[in-house]
Design a protein that fits this description.
The complex is a heterodimer of chains A (189) and B (305). Chain A has 189 residues and is of the alpha+beta class. Chain A contains 6 helices and 4 strands, in the order αααββααββα. Chain A is globular. Chain B is mostly helical. Chain B has 15 helices and 2 strands. Chain B has helices spanning 3-10, 16-38, 41-44, 70-89, 93-110, 117-131, 140-146, 160-182, 191-194, 203-211, 214-229, 231-236, 238-258, 263-277, 284-304, and strands at residues 13-15, 156-158. Chain B is globular and about 60 Å long. The chains are: A alpha+beta (189), B mainly alpha (305).
C-alpha cells in the first residue's frame, strides 16, 4: 500500500512538474524534486545552434588561443551532452563555478599530456569562455552538415564572451607586473 | 473511475512476461546510456575530472556530493555494470535491481552535468522492476527455481510495479505534450525542424532534413503533439491502444535515429512501451519461449527420475 502511494505521488509529481505547475517545487525538497524533472522535453523552438568554446591566454606568446576543452572533458566529446557544454549551459553566470573551471583547465594544461591545441610548454594565464550562436539555416534552403570548425572561422558577430580570468589572477599566473596587450588580438580583459 | 475500480485495475492479474521484457531491456538501455560515462568513471564521478563546487543550496545543484577518489569511482562503476547485467540476466533479480537503482541515484546526484532524463527516471524504473515479480519466468533465478521443489511460476500475477511502469510513459507523454503546447509547438510550425541542426544531428537526420519538404516537419510536429497530449486517451481506449503503441514505438525509433545520444532515452521509452503496452498476441513468442523452457526442464527432470 505504501509503495502504491509512493508510485502515485511520483507519477503525479512528474506530471505536475512537466506541465509547469509550481506545486511540486513547493511540496518537495530539491533532491526528490530533481528526480521528477523528466517530462518537459523540447517545448521550445531552437533559435540558434549553440556551441560553447574556450580560449586560453598564453603567458609567453601574449595572446589568446583556442583551447580544445574536449581534452579535459572526454565524456561525449562531440555533442552538447559533453560536460564542458553542460557547465557552460547551466553555470556560465555563476562566478564560483567559472573560477573553479578556470583553475581546473589551467592546472590540467600545466600537468601536460593531453592534446588541447596549445603547446604543453606554454604556461596559461587564464581562460575566456564564450558561446557560438550560429544562425539556423533558412527553411527550404540547402543544408550544411553540422561540423565543428576552429573558432577563428566564426565571425565576431556569432561569438558571445561571458567569462574571463580576472586580471589579478592572470598577472599572478604569468608573473606579469602589468598585463601586456597583444597587438593582433584583444586585451586579456 | 471509482476508487474500487481503480484498485481492481491495479490488482488485475497481468502477464509476468511483460515485466520480464522490461527486466531485460531497461537495464541494458540504461547501461547503454551510461557506457560513455562509465568509460571515464574517474573523471565523471571521481576526483580526476572537473566538478561544480558546493554552491550551498543553488537550484541547479540538487545535492552536493564531493567527487570520489578515483579507485572508488571505478569500484562504483563496476558495481553499476555488474548489478545492471545481473538484473538483466535475472541473477538475484531483486537484490541486483535494488543495487543498480541505488548506483543510479548516486550518479544522478553526484554529477548534474552528465545527468539527463534517463539518469533521472531510471532509478524509479529499476525500483519498480526490482519490487515486482521479475525474474520468476525467465532468466537465471527462474531456471534455478524450476530445479527446486515447489510450485511452478505463475503466468499471470497482479503487479502494481507493472501498472506503474505502464503508466509512467503515459504520464510523461501527457505532461510533455502539455509543456509543448504551452511552449512553441502551437505557435510555430517548424519547432521540430529547428531541432535538426545542432550537435545531436546524425547522418540520418541530416538526410531527412535535406530530402523531406519543410511542410512534412510541421505535419510530424502536429502528429507528435496530438499523440503526446492525447496519450491517456490513446492508451486508455482499447480501440486505439495498438495504434498508439505502434506510433509510440515508431516515434522513439525516429528519435533514436535522428538525435544521436538520445538513442538510449528512445530505447528506454520503447522498452517501456513494449513491456507495458505491446498487444498480448505480439508477446506470444516470448511467452512460448518461457513455457518451452519450463516444460523442457520438467521433461528433463522426469527422464532423470
Amino acid at each position: 500500500m505504501g509503495l502504491i502511494a509512493l508510485g502515485v505521488v511520483y507519477l503525479g509529481g512528474v506530471w505536475l512538474e512537466g506541465v509547469g505547475s509550481t506545486l511540486p517545487s513547493k511540496v518537495f525538497p530539491r533532491t526528490p524534486l530533481y528526480f521528477l524533472q523528466v517530462a518537459a522535453l523540447f517545448p521550445h523552438a531552437a533559435v540558434n545552434v549553440i556551441d560553447y568554446r574556450a580560449e586560453a591566454w598564453m603567458c609567453r606568446a601574449h595572446r589568446w588561443a583556442e583551447l580544445d576543452t574536449r581534452a579535459y572533458f572526454p565524456l561525449d566529446p562531440d555533442d552538447k551532452e559533453n560536460r564542458f557544454q553542460r557547465v557552460m549551459h547551466f553555470f556560465r553566470e555563476d562566478r564560483p563555478t567559472m573560477r573553479a573551471l578556470d583553475d581546473y583547465i589551467v592546472t590540467q594544461h600545466a600537468a601536460g599530456g593531453r592534446a588541447d591545441g596549445i603547446d604543453d610548454g606554454e604556461t596559461l594565464g587564464g581562460i575566456r569562455g564564450l558561446s557560438l550562436r550560429l544562425p539556423l539555416p533558412a527553411s527550404g534552403a540547402p543544408l550544411v552538415r553540422m561540423q565543428r570548425k576552429p573558432l577563428a572561422e566564426y565571425p565576431q558577430t556569432e561569438r558571445k564572451n561571458f567569462y574571463h580570468t580576472p586580471q589579478s589572477k592572470l598577472k599572478e599566473r604569468c608573473g606579469y607586473k602589468t598585463v601586456p596587450v597583444a597587438p593582433e588580438t584583444e586585451e586579456p580583459q | 473511475m471509482s476508487s474500487s475500480r481503480l484498485w481492481d485495475w491495479i490488482h488485475e492479474p497481468l502477464p509476468v512476461i511483460r515485466l520480464e521484457i522490461l527486466r531485460v531491456a531497461a537495464p541494458l538501455a540504461i547501461l547503454g546510456f551510461m557506457s560513455g560515462r562509465l568509460r571515464h568513471a574517474d573523471e565523471w564521478i571521481g576526483d580526476h575530472g572537473f566538478h561544480v563546487p558546493d554552491l550551498g543550496g543553488d537550484w541547479r545543484q540538487p545535492l552536493y556530493i564531493a567527487p570520489l577518489p578515483a579507485n572508488l569511482a571505478w569500484a562504483l562503476a563496476f558495481v553499476m555494470v555488474a548489478s545492471g547485467l545481473a538484473c538483466a540476466a535475472g541473477v538475484k533479480t531483486r537484490a541486483s535491481g535494488l543495487v543498480f537503482a541505488a548506483t543510479l541515484v548516486f550518479v544522478a546526484l553526484a554529477d548534474r552535468l552528465a545527468a539527463f532524463t534517463v539518469t533521472k527516471m531510471s532509478p524509479a524504473v529499476m525500483l519498480a522492476i526490482a519490487l515486482g515479480p521479475s525474474g520468476t519466468r525467465l532468466g537465471f533465478d527462474a531456471w534455478r527455481k524450476r530445479h527446486a521443489p515447489g510450485k511452478r511460476a505463475k503466468r499471470l500475477r497482479p503487479s502494481a510495479s507493472l501498472r506503474f511502469l505502464q503508466l509512467l510513459p503515459i504520464f510523461i507523454y501527457s505532461a510533455s505534450g502539455i509543456a509543448k503546447a504551452r511552449g512553441d509547438w502551437l505557435k510555430m510550425p517548424l519547432v521540430l525542424w529547428t531541432q535538426l541542426h545542432d550537435t545531436y544531428q546524425t547522418t540520418f537526420s541530416f538526410a531527412l532534413a535535406s530530402l523531406l519538404p519543410v511542410w512534412s516537419w510541421t505535419l510530424m510536429q502536429g502528429l507528435v503533439l496530438a499523440f503526446e497530449m492525447g496519450a491517456p486517451l490513446w492508451f486508455g481506449w482499447a480501440r486505439t491502444r495498438t495504434w498508439a503503441f505502434v506510433f509510440g514505438v515508431g516515434m522513439h525509433a525516429m528519435i533514436g535515429l535522428m538525435f544521436g545520444p538520445v538513442v538510449w532515452f528512445a530505447l528506454l521509452m520503447a522498452a517501456l512501451l513494449v513491456g507495458g503496452w505491446a498487444p498480448e498476441a505480439w508477446l506470444a513468442p516470448v511467452e512460448r519461449l518461457a513455457e518451452r523452457m519450463e516444460s523442457r526442464e520438467e521433461t528433463v527432470e522426469e527422464e532423470s527420475e
